[in-house]
C-alpha cells in the first residue's frame, strides 16, 4: 500500500447516519484536517437531521449515487449496520476511498481477508477504529503499566455488567442487526461490545498464546438471548494472564449518557495495582483511574472520562493520520484481525468445553 498523506484537508463522507454518528461526528467538528463533503443514508429522515450539522455537504441515499456524482471524496466514515460491513466496505474501497470502519470488523477470518484484499487491490487504507484506545483513563492505565510503578505485571482483570435500564435511547431499528448477529452466534456482549475489551488486552500486553472460555446465554425477551454469563481467560505470549467476566443485570438502573455498561479494568503488578473504574456508563462514582503502590493510593480526578471523547480523539487521530501520515493507525485492518481471532478463539474454546485454543491457529 503506497499511502501518501494529503497536503490539504481530507474530503470526507459519512456513510450511515444512525445512532453512533452522534459520537463519531465529534472528531470532524472544527477540525482543520477535514472538510465534510457528503452524507449518505437511505433514510430521508436521517439525511435531513444530519444535514443541519453540515449545511454545505451534499446528501445521497446510497454510496453508489455519491460515487457517480461530481463530489470528490478521499475518505469515508463507515457507520453501517454490522451485517453490511463486508460487502459495504469492499464497495467503498472500490470507489477509491479510504475507509474508517466501526467494530466488529466482520464475523470470520475469510471475510476479513476479502476486505484486506480489497484495500490492497484499490491501494486504499482500511482502518478499524478502536475508540477505547483513545479513552483517556485507559491511556493513562497503559502509561502507568509502562512506567513500572506497579512492578512486573502479574495479571489483568476486566469486568462488565450489562444493565437493562438507563442510558440513551437506541432506536428499535438499531437492534435488528444485533438480533441477526446473535442468531449467527456473534453476541452483543462478547463479540460486539466485547470487541473493545478484547482489543484493550492486545493493546496492553501483546499477542496471545492461549484462550479459554465459557460462553453463557440468557433469554431477555422471547426469542432473543444475550451472551451472558460469560467468563473468558487467556494468556499472552509474555506469560501475563487475563480474565474477563461478563454478567447481566437486566433490572439494574445504571446512570449513563450512552449505553448501560458498567465496566472496569484492573492491572495487578508485583508492587501494586491500577484500576479504571468506569467508561461507557457512570457506575462507580470514584475518580476514573486509581493507582495503588507501596501503601499509597493516587487518584486521577481530572481525566477526560466522557466516553464520547474517545470517539472524538479516535476520529481526529485518523484525520491527522491521513493529513500528515503521523502514526500508528490504531488499528490497522491486520491488527483488527488479531481481535477477531481472539473472539473466534473464545467461541472455539467454549464449544469444546473450555479447552485452550491458540488464536493464531484460527482460520
Ligand atoms: N465504537 C463503538 O463503541 C460503537 C457503538 C455503537 C455502534 N457501533 C458500530 O457503529 C455501526 C453503526 O451502528 P449504529 O448503532 O449507528 O446503527 P444504526 O442502525 O443506528 O445506524 C445505521 C445507519 O446506517 C444506515 N444504512 C443502512 N444501510 C445503509 C447503506 N447501504 N448505506 C448507507 N447507510 C445505510 C441506516 O439507515 C442507519 O441510519 C455498527 O458497525 C456498530 O457496530 C460502534
Could you explain the architecture of this structure?
It is a single chain. With 363 residues, the chain is an alpha/beta fold. Helix content is 33%, strand content 27%. The protein has 10 helices and 16 strands. The chain has an 8-stranded mixed beta sheet with strand order 8-11-12-7-13-14-15-16. The chain has a 6-stranded parallel beta sheet with strand order 3-2-1-4-5-6, sandwiched between helices. Helix 5 links the parallel strand 5 and strand 6 (126-128). The longest helix is centred in the last third of the chain and has 19 residues, at 333-351. The protein is globular, with a radius of gyration of 20 Å. The mean pLDDT is 96. Nicotinamide-adenine-dinucleotide (NAD) binds next to helix 7.
Task: Sum this structure up briefly.
The protein has about 375 residues and is α/β, with parallel strands linked by helices. The protein contains ten helices and 16 strands. The chain is globular, with a radius of gyration of 20 Å.
Order of helices and strands: EHEHEHEHEHEHEHHEEEEEEEEEHH
Shape: globular
Helix content: 25-40%
Order of strands, widest sheet = 8-11-12-7-13-14-15-16
Work out the helix count.
10
What structural class results from the helix and strand content? alpha/beta
Largest sheet: 8 strands, mixed
Instruction: Report the span from N to C terminus.
Output: 24 Å
- Note poorly predicted spans: none
Instruction: Tell me the fraction of residues in β-strands, as a range.
Output: 25-35%
